[in-house]
């Protein structure tokens, strides 16, 4: 992904575009976003796109069905020699409506809320081990195992296969970044991961059809609306998005949230004083440092946004991470304030789960997991201390988060 630069070198704005996508900016892309927002609502981006920099325009584009998400595989993955199974994330009505409805029928709020006690048990055990160790990598000890276990248990993946699912999921998540940013090894790893995923889940679906259980795979295999069912390919695409979107994103919500608290002990103290802040705090963490930093849209018809007219086929990159820090939408946008979403009137919604047709189907599960983590941290952790100056980030651009978060935890457990 390159942008044209003047012979004298890139301008400040061109440099900010380069910075926003550079691996060296994973730690802090927000300074580059600030320059981009100041430059205007749209800034020329990579792959012939326009970057959408401001909250109001990101919000408007995500809500407007004139903008399609179906072109993203062609835009970002032209080098793909395997077909990433098409999930409804990359479809438009009527196919999107049909598949999303079938999945929603199985993915009920009751099923999700029923997982709260399970999440509490998992967090209790993981945090207990981490507190006993004192020094721990929170990504390995908490952020990875919780969502992995939750999504695998929800689907009905046996415990002895969780590690395999993690490996496949990581290879596919890395492969969601634009092909131009991936090495030949990473592209090959994506191919292998998708192939392994198809084999593993193909067998599991067949087993559940033959021997139904109380799990989501069985529910999806049995789901039926108006005589309609999921085809094998649709089932695979759906499982892939549920596993990858449902797992890799939440890992980073937990990691980013813990880092944010680590950098603001006053906010941790606030949470310890008032654990009821946990639920609104989840939304503030999602706003402040969202796990998904961008998505794309392509105009299906001529459409005007913020005074600029786009022709059919024009593509934009919606900078969720920038929108969430737009001071025109959020006062003190660069500050973490756990009470922000507890305030009345409610502030603007953040865009961390997207908006409109493709609004995240797993938002309630992700919120539940992070709320349980925050409640447990409030009850049991007195202080968190970072053990490295700058925690390393994974190279991933779209689903962004840390590779490690080495910390020392001080036990504040009254038990
Ligand atoms: C913190 C965690 C999560 C974040 C930040 C997140 C973020 C997002 C975003 C931004 C979108 C919209 C993408 C777009 O419009 O281009 C999305 C869609 C989606 N997410 Fe999530 N997600 C999270 C957790 C989950 C979980 C736990 C699941 C399921 C187990 C899930 C499943 C999905 C699915 C199926 C879609 C596609 C919806 C559609 O196209 O209609 N996500 N997510």
TrEMBL record:
PROSITE patterns, sorted: CYTOCHROME_P450
Keyword check for Manganese: no
Pfam families: p450 (PF00067)
Keywords, ordered alphabetically: Heme, Iron, Metal-binding, Monooxygenase, Oxidoreductase
PANTHER family in the cross-refs: CYTOCHROME P450 YJIB-RELATED, P450, PUTATIVE (EUROFUNG)-RELATED
Family: Belongs to the cytochrome P450 family.
Protein name: Cytochrome P450
């Amino acid at each position: 992904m390159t942008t044209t630069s003047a012979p004298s070198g890139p301008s400040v704005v061109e440099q900010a575009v380069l910075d926003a996508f550079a691996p060296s900016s994973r730690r802090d892309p927000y300074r580059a976003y600030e320059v981009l927002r100041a430059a205007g609502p749209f800034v020329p981006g990579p792959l012939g796109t326009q970057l959408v920099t401001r909250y109001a325009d990101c919000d408007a584009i995500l809500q407007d069905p004139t903008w399609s998400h179906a072109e993203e595989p062609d835009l970002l993955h032209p080098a793909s020699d395997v077909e990433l199974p098409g999930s409804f994330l990359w479809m438009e009505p009527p196919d999107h409506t049909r598949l999303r409805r079938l999945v929603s029928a199985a993915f009920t709020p009751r099923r999700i809320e029923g997982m709260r006690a399970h999440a509490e048990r998992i967090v209790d055990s993981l945090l207990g081990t981490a507190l006993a160790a004192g020094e721990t990598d929170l990504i390995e000890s908490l952020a990875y195992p919780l969502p992995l276990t939750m999504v695998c248990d929800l689907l009905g993946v046996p415990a002895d296969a969780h590690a395999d699912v993690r490996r496949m999921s990581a290879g596919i998540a890395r492969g969601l970044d634009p092909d131009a940013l991936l090495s030949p090894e990473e592209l090959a790893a994506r191919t292998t991961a998708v192939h392994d995923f198809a084999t593993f889940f193909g067998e599991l679906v067949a087993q559940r059809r033959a021997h139904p259980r109380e799990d989501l795979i069985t529910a999806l295999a049995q789901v039926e609306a108006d005589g309609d069912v999921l085809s094998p390919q649709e089932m695979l695409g759906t499982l892939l998005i549920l596993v990858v979107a449902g797992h890799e994103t939440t890992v980073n919500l937990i990691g980013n949230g813990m880092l944010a608290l680590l950098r603001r002990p006053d906010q941790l103290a606030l949470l310890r004083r008032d654990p009821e802040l946990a639920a609104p705090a989840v939304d503030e963490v999602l706003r402040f440092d969202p796990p998904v930093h961008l998505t794309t849209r392509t105009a299906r018809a001529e459409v005007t946004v913020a005074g600029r007219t786009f022709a059919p086929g024009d593509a934009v990159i919606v900078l969720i991470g920038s929108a969430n820090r737009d001071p025109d939408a959020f006062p003190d946008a660069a500050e973490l304030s756990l009470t922000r979403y507890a305030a009345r009137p409610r502030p603007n919604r953040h865009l961390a789960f997207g908006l409109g047709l493709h609004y995240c189907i797993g938002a309630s599960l992700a919120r539940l997991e992070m709320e349980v983590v925050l409640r447990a941290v409030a009850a049991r952790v007195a202080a968190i201390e970072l053990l490295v100056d700058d925690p390393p980030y994974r190279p991933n651009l779209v689903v962004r988060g840390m590779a490690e978060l080495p910390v020392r935890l001080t036990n504040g457990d009254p038990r």
